[in-house]
Amino acid sequence: MKTKRDFPSLKNDLILRAVKGEEVERIPVWVMRQAGRYLPEYLEVRKQNDFFKICRTPELACKVTLQPIDRFAGLLDASIIFCDILVIPQAMGLEVQMVEGKGPHFPHPIRVVEDLKRLKDTVDVDKELSYVYEAITLTRIKLDGRCPLFGFVGAPWTLFAYMIEGGGSKTLSKAKTWLYTYPKESHRLLQKTTDVIVDFILGQIRAGAQMIQVFDSWGGELTPKMFRTFSVPYLTQIASRVKAAMVEEGLQVPLFIFAKGAHASLDILSSIGYDVVSLDCTIDPKQARIDTKWRVTLQGNADPNLLYAPADVIKKEVREMLNAFGANNYIANLGHGMMPGHSPDALKVFLEAIRDHSSSMGNK
Ligand code: 1CP
Question: For labelling alongside 363, which of 99, 171, 257, 356 has CA 20 to 30 A away?
Fold first, then answer.
């Protein structure tokens, strides 16, 4: 395994400095799902390869991770390893396919309590997901210090929802039925998933990930009380266990939490051990600063649909967003991921607008 010394030194550490609240000469930016379906060069690779084959082949995962970094040279301040949150359910023993035009599909989801027996008793995370570690190490080398590299995981509740729904869902009725009907078994599955997540995060960090984002994409689908009961305890556990292990191993990697739609819980999310809270576009930046009391760095939160607007509208909205968040303890991003219909040119306008406006804001 590579140690810190073996990797090329970092030439752009803006985002790491913003996390620590240090001075930055301009506001750092990256975008969720910055690799993928909106890029013609990704679609070329995808035409010849199954989605999970790309994830499982370090050279391909690395190639696709670097595509936006190459295309938007000097405009992106972070890269994120190409993978998917659903590799964890796979490692736990469930089959997941990526269906063309539909998204992830579990042919045999967890439906009844009895189905929990189909999950492996113990998961050898480092063996099952070693391909992600190899992709991370290779990408760190190929990045050559241009910007830091994110590893990521899905949060326990979001992965639970996929494992029970069997794919995307508008209502999450099946997953919520479990929470209400089988709370004990639900906690058992959430804990089992948390244990895998902790090992997987640490493995990614040891392989070279310089930041970690936890995606609780379905966090906002729960009532605040349900979120506090079925998500927050596990998110808290992840942060504390990962941080304790990092202290022991002399590692220092910031943790980001993106709980989409969890507006009511921003205060809690800013006090459970994460360094950065990532916001979706329905949250007002100033309100988010009040709720999180400057305890964390904030990330976000432009509406992804803004990238369908004319260039002058993108620029105006970017200026307003940056002014509302302020130059410190802030990382610009979209409030959710890039969409297949987006044009790479629109993203370029967004990134350039952030660079240009933030350079003129000064550090206040
Ligand atoms: O056919 C294809 O090429 C599949 C499209 C695709 C891509 C490019 C999927 C299917 N996943 C990904 C990559 C991916 N997924 C990345 C790395 C790329 C990058 O960011 O540069 C990341 C970080 C994810 C994370 C992910 N996967 C999340 C969390 C973020 C979010 O969007 O909320 C979720 C919920 C998933 C599940 C998933 N995988 C793919 C799709 C279409 C979905 C969402 C399905 C649904 O609507 O429920």
Answer: 257
The torsion angles phi and psi of 215, rounded to 5 degrees, stand at -95, 105
Q: Is residue 94 part of a domain?
A: yes
Query: Which ligand 1 atom lies nearest to the CA of residue 36?
Result: 8
| Active-site residue, 46 included | yes
Q: Is position 364 within any domain? A: no
Helix (H) or strand (E) holding 153: strand 149-154
Residue 216 annotated in active site: no
Give the model confidence (pLDDT) of 283-330 as tens digits.
999 999 999 999 999 999 999 999 999 999 999 999 999 999 999 999
d(CA 135, CA 121): 27
Q: Per-residue pLDDT for 5 more than 50? A: yes
State the total domains in the chain. Answer: 1
Structural domain boundaries enclosing 302 = 4-359
The preferred substitution site among 33, 43, 45 for testing ligand 1, maximizing ligand atoms within 8 Å of CB, is 33
- Cα dist from 65 to 85, 151, 168, whole Å: 15, 11, 24
User: pLDDT band at residue 364, thresholds of 50, 70 and 90?
Assistant: very low
Residue 27 and residue 331 in contact, taking contact as beta carbons nearer than 8 Å: yes
State the average pLDDT for the chain. 96
CATH number for the domain including 217?
A: 3.20.20.210
Which amino acid residue places its CA nearest to atom 47 of ligand 1? Answer: 168
State yes or no: is 33 an active-site residue.
Answer: yes
Give phi and psi for 237, each to the nearest 5. Answer: -60, -40
Give the integer Cα–Cα distance in Å for 58 and 66.
Answer: 12
Residues with CB under 6 A from ligand 1: 32-37, 46, 51, 80, 82-86, 98, 103-104, 152, 168, 215, 217, 337
